[in-house]
Amino acid sequence: MIELVNIKKGFGEKIILPDVSAVMETGKVNLIIGSSGSGKTVMMKCMVGLMEIDGGKVLYDGQDFTSMPELERKHIRRQIGMLFQGSALFDSMTVEQNVMFPLDMFSKGSLKEKKTRVMECLERVQLKDAAKKFPAEISGGMKKRVGIARAIVLNPRYLFCDEPNSGLDPQTSLLIDKLIKEITHEFNMTTVINTHDMNTVMESGDHIVYMYQGKKQWEGSNEDIIFSKDEKLNDFIFASDFLRDAKEMRQMEIFREKDWRNKLKKN
Ligand SMILES: Nc1ncnc2c1ncn2[C@@H]1O[C@H](COP(=O)(O)OP(=O)(O)OP(=O)(O)O)[C@@H](O)[C@H]1O
Question: What is the atom index within ligand 1 of the atom nearest the CA of 214?
Answer without folding.
Answer: 14
